[in-house]
Amino acid sequence: MAIDLTNFWDPASPAPPPLRAAFVQQLEQQLGVLLPPELLALLTQQNGGYTRGFAYLTSQPTSWAAHHVPFDELFGLVLPRDAGPPSLLDTAYLTHEWGLPEKQVVLSGDGHWFITLDYRHGPTPSVTWIDTEMDQEIPLAASFAAFLVGLVDRDSVPEE
C-alpha cells in the first residue's frame, strides 16, 4: 500500500526555510539536470527534513539490512551552511568527498551510504542506493515517482 504523501514529513522535524525557486534553478544549472516534479512537490510541502520514517524494500541485501534501505530524511534545497541541515545543493561536495559517481543528486545519506537521483542513463533519473564503504550500487526504482510508490512505513518492515 502506497504511503500518504500528504502525511510524509515528521511533524516534530524542525521546519526549514520554504523552497525558493532560485535554489531550484541554481541546482539544476549547477548539475545540468531537471528535478522530478514529484520531488519538487514534496519540497514545496516542506523543504527537507525528517520523514515519518520509511523504508524501501530491496531484492538483495545491503549493508543496512537484508531486505530494505532506510528513508528517514530527505534533503531540502537550502543554502549550505557549516552547521546547517544537509541540502541537495551539497551534492557536488558530497560527490567529491565520498567518491560518488558523476551525474547524481544526493537525496539522503550519511556519508557511508546515499540514496540518489541517478542521471547517468538520461534526463529522467532513476533512484539508486550507493554504499561508499562496501562499494555497492543497487538500483532501487526506475523513477522518483516509482520510488515514492515503493516506500513503506519503516515499522511495517519485519525484524531481521
Q: Can you tell me the CATH topology?
A: SMI1/KNR4-like
Quick check: average pLDDT?
Answer: 90
Strand order of the largest sheet: 3-4-5-6
Helix content estimate: 10-25%
Distance between the termini: 21 Å
Percent strand: 25-35%
**Topology pattern, helix = H, strand = E:** HHEEHEEEEHE
Low-confidence stretches: none
How many domains comprise the coordinates?
Answer: 1
**Secondary structure tally: strands:** 7
Q: How would the global form be characterised? A: globular
Name the CATH class: Alpha Beta
Q: Radius of gyration, Cα only, in angstroms? A: 15 Å
Largest sheet: 4 strands, antiparallel
Structural class: alpha+beta
> Please, how many helices?
4
Please sum up the structure shown.
The chain contains four helices and seven strands.
What are the salient characteristics of this protein?
4-stranded antiparallel β-sheet; alpha+beta; 160 residues; Knr4/Smi1-like_sf; 7 strands; SMI1/KNR4-like; single chain; Knr4/Smi1-like domain-containing protein
Overview of this protein structure:
It comes from Hymenobacter roseosalivarius DSM 11622. InterPro entries: Knr4/Smi1-like_dom (IPR018958), Knr4/Smi1-like_sf (IPR037883). It holds the Pfam family SMI1_KNR4. This is Knr4/Smi1-like domain-containing protein. It is a single chain. The chain is α+β, with helices and mostly antiparallel strands. It has a single domain, classed as SMI1/KNR4-like (3-Layer(aba) Sandwich), CATH 3.40.1580.10. Helix content is 22%, strand content 27%. The strands form two sheets. A four-stranded antiparallel sheet has the order 3-4-5-6. A three-stranded antiparallel sheet has the order 2-1-7. The two termini are 21 Å apart.
